[in-house]
Specification:
Length: 259
């Protein structure tokens, strides 16, 4: 059955591809990001049931307006996807207050605002699905120059789990899910704070945004607590990391730069 879906970070990358996959199967969409021009193009390519609303997810008021716009347009929301996010290229010892605040605002507070905006509606209906797009780096901090991004996504993982546990008993038909992609071939790497414009993720374990979007579509159809979008490689790394963090870091260090 077609669903009404609110999707942030829909102007580019994983969000734009996900919007098209959802529209192709008949879902009705409210697409959000800051860039109205890009959103308009994505919405146009999605067809008649795709609307857009310019939103800066770091502003609570904007996120509340996005919720209001979605409810005005469709009268209900089935799925809310907090997908907007941004990385950073700076190791821990070089982080400024501004760096850290930006990472928390765009990756954590944005999703908190989204959850707090839509949960009263889900509770009223007794059903709904909140999906937070995090990162594998929030579970295993593989890449130290993403430091504050990894920390922010770890915080997002924790908030997501806490919310799910709070709702479990009273609202069994409200699902709260976490998505952990690895590297994905979008413009993400070029958009990171202090990053190099135009760079793209590369390497053998890099997924396409189409693959990640398909995993999220499947999650909507089969809600679960969390998914790794590339489980074959990611699950093995999680097992090794939590079995022996020091040994894992030693092995990583041998692959990395020498001082
Ligand atoms: O990133 P990118 P992805 N308010 O840079 C929007 C996670 N992830 O699609 O506002 C509202 O191509 C921005 O729109 P605009 C990642 O952390 C990725 O790859 O118009 N929207 C655009 O639509 C993130 O959570 C990788 O500039 C804001 C979108 O967000 C999600 O996947 C690996 C905004 C970013 O598009 C999508 O990332 C991983 C704001 N303040 C996790 N700031 C990866 N690609 O390698 C940004 O593990 N946006």
């Amino acid at each position: 059955m077609s669903k009404v879906i609110v999707l942030t970070g829909a102007s580019a990358g994983i969000g734009a591809v996900l919007a098209k996959q959802l529209a192709a199967r008949g879902d009705a969409l409210m697409l959000a990001a800051r860039s109205a021009d890009k959103l308009r193009l994505v919405a146009r390519s999605c067809g008649r049931e795709a609307y857009f609303f310019s939103t800066d997810v770091t502003r609570r008021q904007d996120v509340n307006r996005l919720r209001d716009e979605a409810l005005r347009t469709f009268e209900h929301v089935d799925v809310w996807i907090n997908n907007a996010g941004r990385g950073i290229s700076r190791p821990v010892l070089d982080l400024t207050d501004e760096d850290f605040d930006e990472m928390m605002a765009v990756n954590v507070k944005s999703a908190l605002y989204g959850a707090q905006a839509i949960l009263p509606h889900f509770k009223e209906r007794g059903e709904g699905h909140l999906i937070n797009v995090s990162s594998f780096l929030g579970r295993v901090p593989l890449v130290t120059f993403r430091s504050a991004y990894n920390a922010a996504k770890s915080a997002l993982n924790a908030l997501t789990a806490n919310l799910r546990m709070d709702l479990r008993a009273g609202y069994p038909n409200i699902h709260v899910s976490l998505v952990m992609p690895g590297a994905v071939s979008t413009e993400f790497a070029g958009n990171v704070l202090h990053g190099v414009p135009g760079t793209r993720a590369a390497g053998s374990n890099v997924q396409t945004p189409e693959e990640v979007a398909a995993a999220i579509v499947d999650l909507i159809d089969h809600p679960s607590a969390e998914i790794y979008t590339n489980p074959d490689t990611q699950l093995e790394q999680v097992k090794r990391y939590y079995a022996d963090v020091a040994a894992f870091e030693d092995a990583l260090g041998q692959l990395g730069d020498k001082p």
